[in-house]
Structure formats: C-alpha cells, structure tokens
Amino acid sequence: MNTHQALPLAELLEAASFIELGARERAKVLLDPGTMRELIGPFDRMTSPWLARQGVVTQSDDGVIVAKGTINKQPFVVLAIEGAFQGGSLGEVGGAKISGALELAAQDNRNGIPTGAIILFETGGVRLQEANLGLAAIAEIHSAIVDLRRYQPVIGISAGTVGCFGGMSIAAALCSYLVVTKEARIGLNGPAVIEQEAGIAEYDSRDRPFIWSFTGGEQRVDSGLADVLVDDDVDKIRATVTDLLARGIPTLHRSEQITRFLTGLNKVDATAQATPAMARAIYQQGGA
C-alpha cells in the first residue's frame, strides 16, 4: 500500500517545495483543482507479480500514479513515478500503466479530444528484478511518447531527488519539453554504474558537486539537453507548464536534431579529461 497520505490541495500549495511532495501530490498540484481522478490506483491492487517471488515487498500501485484531469480546462494525463519505491524503477506493471495511458491519450486525440500528457521522472530506469520485462515496458513508453507528441506537447519534469537515469532518460529526451530544477540529475548511466565500469578516478560517485556539475539540471539546460530550469516551487513549476503549453508542439523535437548532436559529439577529444565547461561547449557548438 502506498504510504503517502493525500493532502488537501490548499495544504499542498502552501508547501511551496515540489520536491518534498510525493508522486500523487505532485500530480494533484499540476492539475486544475478538483479535477484529478486516479486510474488504476492503490485500491485496484495492481502489484508487480515478480517482486514478491524474489522476497521484495510490493506496493499496490507499483510506484506509478496515473492521474486524469485538466490543465487550464484542457484534458491531461499526469504520469508520476514515485522515487521512494524501489528508487522509482520501472517494471512490467508500472511501465504498462505509463505506456497505456499515453496510448489512450493519443487515441483521444485521434477521436477529437485534445489530451496532453506530463511525465514526472524520478527514476533509476529499469527495475533490475524484472529485467527484460522492464526494458520492454520502457521501449513501449518511448514509442507512446513519439506517437502522442505529434498531437499535443508531452512535457517531462525532473525535479529531484532521485533523478532520471537509464532507459527513462531516453524517455525524458523524447518529450516535447523537459523541465528541470537545479536538484535534478539526468543521465543514461547513474554515477555508481559509471564508477564501477570506469573506476573512481574517472567518476567518483560520492563527489556530489562533481556529479551535479555534469548531470545536474543547470548543466543539462546549458547543454541544450533540457529546456527550462525552474526553482523548486509548486507555483513556478505550474506556471512553467502553462507557458510551455502555450508554445505548442515544437517545430523540431530534440530527438530529431540528429545533425546538431552528431556535429558536437564528433568534436569530443577522448584523450582529454572531460570537464563540465567542455561538455557545454561541445553541445553549444553542435547547435551553432
């Protein structure tokens, strides 16, 4: 059972920090007051069939909140990953909830209902206990994002504190717009994995300033890998979402800017120790 207790919207808004909210509360504050309806919620008992077999305590929503409602009176689905459960990892059930909701939103649009989507990324990526099932689920999420973003903006938000890693960092990159705070981190591989494979001299997973200088929200925006840097504040994040919706669908999504990114990556000197400034310069030159 999910341990986060739902709070009245007025109390959530008074608590200015978005990061301090649980996934369900984050979804609630983004939607218009009184419009949130949770689909496949905790009382539906959709738990992972694989965790219990491995002696892992399950959660009755599998760590994924699917909230339907409106934003500025437009239909929206908010998909919030609970970073406090299994590090926000995605398995078969949680992944199916996200991809299924996105697929239904795309179908809404084909039926004349302009349904948009917001994905709240607090995830380490695939759930290791579910291995290939989790990978398949994340691949379906990728496909569903690309389908839906043809009709409506798909907005990704990574606030903190878990970050966004693994296959779900690819999902974040596929979003129409990606919003981050300074506390956010986004990367294909997590710090511990990089240290394990490349050695502590290359990447010290305990050096927090070093890690944030490469994968933190501010660096990702400066490098063009995220769109908006926003303070950890509920009102500011809601306002940012409204501003992005007003922009509409991007003329060219980030994942379609192949030449731009290849131009930058071709300038990488693998013989030199990378620095945050070097990484920013490479991406910025690629965009020139």
Task: Describe the model.
It contains 11 helices and 9 strands. It has 288 residues and is an alpha/beta fold. It has 2 domains: 9-256, 2-enoyl-CoA Hydratase, Chain A, domain 1 (Alpha-Beta Complex), CATH 3.90.226; 257-288, no CATH class. The longest helix has 19 residues, at 92-110. It starts with 8 loop residues before the first helix and ends with a helix.
Report a brief summary of the structure.
InterPro entries: AcCoA_carboxyl_beta, ClpP/crotonase-like_dom_sf, COA_CT_N, Malonate_beta. The protein has helices at 9-14, 23-30, 92-110, 131-148, 167-174, 191-198, 208-215, 217-222, 234-247, 258-265, 276-286; strands spanning 37-39, 64-71, 74-81, 116-120, 154-158, 164-165, 177-180, 186-187, 228-229.
CATH homology superfamily of the largest domain: 2-enoyl-CoA Hydratase, Chain A, domain 1
Mean pLDDT: 92
Give Rg in angstroms.
19 Å
- Relative strand content: 5-15%
Q: Tell the overall outline.
A: globular
Biggest sheet architecture: 7 strands, mixed
CATH architecture of the largest domain, by name, is Alpha-Beta Complex
* Portion in helices: 25-40%
Taking the alpha carbons of the first and last residues, their distance comes to 50 Å
Strand tally, please? 9
CATH class of the largest domain: Alpha Beta
Give the helix tally: 11
* Order of adjacent strands in the largest pleated sheet: 1-2-3-4-5-7-9
Task: State the low-pLDDT regions, or none.
Answer: none
InterPro entries: AcCoA_carboxyl_beta, ClpP/crotonase-like_dom_sf, COA_CT_N, Malonate_beta
Keywords: Transferase
Protein name: Biotin-independent malonate decarboxylase subunit beta
GO molecular function: acetyl-CoA carboxylase activity; carboxy-lyase activity; transferase activity
